[in-house]
């Protein structure tokens, strides 16, 4: 195999509970990662040399900082003697800085795709360990299952959800994950909850009150979407979402959104489209 085209699906955090802070500054959390059947597309083509070329470059992100190139370099470093190169082309659909894991998912698809193209034979646990060095959200995309997560997001237990339809809105602002996690007003010591308590409902996102206060456009989007169904923040934002029983209702709500808010409709899935494309899981 010399070429492969792979999906890079989004995630939303159905809830997010921050329970503590580690000595290295990272936060201990509980969350439910819901994978969606919507995302970027990455085309990977093997090269006869050691070069990595990414097209197009993302606005404001030099190629060497792009998580795709950083993921590929991690794999090259494991096998410095081998000829491992690739042309990578990305069709970007997921808004950046949205809390829907776009960069992390691109990185995971790069790891799984190059593992296949370069015949490295690493297993998912090994790839997830490499992915965790790139970001706390990468392992869930490597494992490819909607999952309950603890630790900093890397201790994963797959869980089946109802595969609802979601409206995801991207208010016109960019939220920095690092800025929210460093903020003195973040609620960072909530009591841990059990899966059963989450399933009974009523759990929100520890970051939401702070993000609403700092970013009025997020607050406005939540108020707007709440007219139709209970709306929540995903990750540290800026995206907000609500679930609907069928596609038609979700499309109708999304279609009425205010002009200054981007949005899309996607179905929740229990298994990643990436893993389906690769024929694993
Ligand atoms: C908030 C979530 O989106 C929930 O899914 C993720 O935990 C964020 O994951 P991510 O974007 O992959 O995060 P990283 O790139 O690893 O970290 C970005 C910054 O967020 C903070 N960070 C992230 C994850 C975490 N559990 N605790 C943190 O404190 C750190 O300050 C870090 O410098
Ligand atoms: N391939 C990539 N796609 C998007 N962003 C990237 C990529 N590579 C590096 N980045 C950088 O990562 C930052 C965060 O992007 P991303 O879209 O992953 O945020 P996010 O959806 O908030 O992620 P998360 O939910 O994991 O916190 C961007 O602002 C950009 O500087």
TrEMBL record:
UniProt source species: Zhongshania borealis
Chemical reaction(s) catalysed: 4-CDP-2-C-methyl-D-erythritol + ATP = 4-CDP-2-C-methyl-D-erythritol 2-phosphate + ADP + H(+)
Q: Which residues bind ATP?
A: 95-105
* GO molecular function list: kinase activity
Active-site residues (renumbered): 11, 137
Protein name per the record:
4-diphosphocytidyl-2-C-methyl-D-erythritol kinase
Pathway per its UniProt entry is: Isoprenoid biosynthesis; isopentenyl diphosphate biosynthesis via DXP pathway; isopentenyl diphosphate from 1-deoxy-D-xylulose 5-phosphate: step 3/6
Q: Which InterPro entries match?
A: GHMP_kinase_C_dom, GHMP_kinase_C_sf, GHMP_kinase_N_dom, IspE, Ribosomal_Su5_D2-typ_SF, Ribsml_uS5_D2-typ_fold_subgr
Q: Which residues form the GHMP kinase C-terminal domain?
A: 196-254
This enzyme's EC code(s): 2.7.1.148
């Amino acid at each position: 195999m010399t070429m492969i085209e792979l999906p890079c699906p989004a995630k939303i955090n159905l809830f997010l509970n921050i329970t503590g802070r580690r000595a290295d500054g990272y936060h201990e959390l509980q969350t439910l990662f819901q994978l969606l059947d919507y995302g970027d597309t990455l085309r990977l083509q093997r090269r006869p040399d050691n070069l990595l070329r990414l097209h197009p470059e993302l606005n404001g992100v030099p190629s060497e900082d792009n998580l795709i190139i950083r993921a590929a370099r991690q794999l090259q470093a494991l096998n410095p003697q081998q000829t491992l190169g690739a042309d990578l082309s990305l069709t970007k659909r997921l808004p950046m800085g949205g809390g829907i894991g776009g960069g992390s998912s691109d990185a995971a698809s790069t790891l799984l795709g190059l593992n296949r193209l370069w015949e490295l034979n690493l297993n998912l646990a090994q790839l997830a360990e490499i992915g965790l060095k790139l970001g706390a959200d990468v392992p869930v995309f490597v494992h490819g299952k909607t999952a309950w997560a603890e630790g900093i997001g890397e201790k994963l237990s797959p869980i089946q959800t109802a595969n609802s339809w979601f409206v995801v809105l991207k208010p016109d602002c960019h939220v920095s994950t690092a800025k929210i996690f460093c903020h003195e007003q973040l609620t960072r010591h909530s009591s841990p909850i059990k899966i059963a308590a989450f399933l009974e409902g009523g759990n929100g996102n520890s970051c939401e009150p702070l993000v609403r206060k700092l970013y009025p456009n997020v607050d406005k989007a939540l108020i707007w979407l709440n007219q139709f169904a209970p709306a929540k923040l995903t990750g540290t934002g800026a995206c907000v979402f609500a679930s609907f029983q069928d596609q038609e209702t979700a499309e109708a709500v999304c279609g009425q959104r205010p002009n200054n808010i981007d949005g899309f409709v996607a179905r929740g899935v229990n298994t990643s489209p990436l893993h389906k494309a690769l024929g694993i899981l």
